[in-house]
Amino acid sequence: MEDQNRSLIKVNSSLLAALSKGTLSINVMPKDILVLESLVAGTSFRNLKDVEKSLNKSVRLELKREPDNKYDDFAVALYFKKNKVGFLPRDKNETIGRLIDAGKSFFATITAKEWEGNWLKIEIQVYLKD
């Protein structure tokens, strides 16, 4: 008992039990990690006129792997709800594609957008979910 009173850190046995059983967890890195800033590829091949007004800075785009994509082995598509918006550029997708394949989760936010002819130029930031 005397050794416990001289400890630098008071230990709560109930807290230790909850941590060891997995009923309580501590998130040591609670911030999502920015991993890529990029333009979205392929938007000129998508019909985005109906959803463009909804694509604002508060939207999170879902990233989905397309391992069977015939043009790109590491294709990562970006979705707004059920609408495919485009892809991560081929020269920037391999690491994120491999991490998705390994079970990691990502999302993207829109930082800017504007129409240039039939191309909706969308700038995004991609985050690793914590």
Any idea of the CATH topology? Alpha-Beta Plaits
**Helix residue percentage:** 10-25%
- Put simply, the count of helices is 3
Total beta strands: 6
Structure, briefly:
This protein is 16% helix and 34% strand. With 130 residues, the protein is α+β, with helices and mostly antiparallel strands.
What structural keywords apply?
130 residues; alpha+beta; Alpha-Beta Plaits; six-stranded antiparallel beta sheet; 34% strand; elongated
Write the layout of secondary structure elements.
Layout: H1 2-5, H2 13-21, E1 33-39, E2 60-65, E3 76-80, E4 83-87, H3 94-101, E5 106-116, E6 119-128
Antiparallel strand pairs: 1-6, 2-3, 2-5, 3-4, 5-6
Q: What does this entry look like structurally?
A:
With 130 residues, this protein is α+β, with helices and mostly antiparallel strands. The chain has a single domain, classed as Alpha-Beta Plaits (2-Layer Sandwich). Helices cover 16% and strands 34% of the residues. It is built from three helices and six strands. The protein has a six-stranded antiparallel beta sheet with strand order 1-6-5-2-3-4, covered by helices on one side. Strand 5 and strand 6 form a beta hairpin. The radius of gyration is 21 Å and the shape is elongated. The mean pLDDT is 88.
